[in-house]
Fold these 2 entries.
Entry 1:
Amino acid sequence: MPLVLAIWLAGSLAAARPACVVARVIDGDTFRCRDGTRVRLIGIDSPERGQGPAARAAAQALARWLPRGRMVRLELDVVATDRYGRTLAWVWVADTLVNEAMVRAGWAMLYTVPPNVKYVDRLTRAQRAARAARVGLWRQGEPTCSPARFRRKECAGL
């Protein structure tokens, strides 16, 4: 096998992830696979545990998409892991992009970290739809504290 082809194949196999079997949902944007892999959904941010009922609702929404034992497909983008060692992925259940479904239902906000922006246009449209429909986090209008601001201790909650 030519060296260039071997290198390309090795790179392709490293980027490809086998299907993940969901072990448990951690919060509205993170879950764990049975093999121990921690997965952070790319492009979204859901309320943090200290943000009260909205955090529980977001985690429950993700758990409906990702019940224990469900097989999901992980699609990687440019950067495969975050600083905490979590796999960064676009998560698919059949033909549904779960990242987008969470935003469209209003239980996550658009949160882009370049260069992982493959589906940012889809997520932007989903967030506009959620705001217009006043669903989930948008039910009372604009949330008073985004998850990112909460993590930076700039506010107390949603």
Note: The chain has a mean pLDDT of 90.
Entry 2:
Amino acid sequence: MGEVIRIGMDTSKRFFQLHGVDAAEQVVLRAKHSPSQMRAYFKKASPLVVGLEASPGRIIGRGP
């Protein structure tokens, strides 16, 4: 299993879905974390690129 170099993060109401790939673009991570578990994961992780899923309901400061 390779080292995760990029993660896609899907934010839901209670959990974060993480999907990570290695340098060969092979999926090496599929995980569902609570906010506290996610913080603990990223504290231990090597530097990597994170892409966030954004939906209209999740954008802070969005106008009417």
Note: The chain is about 15% helix and 35% strand.
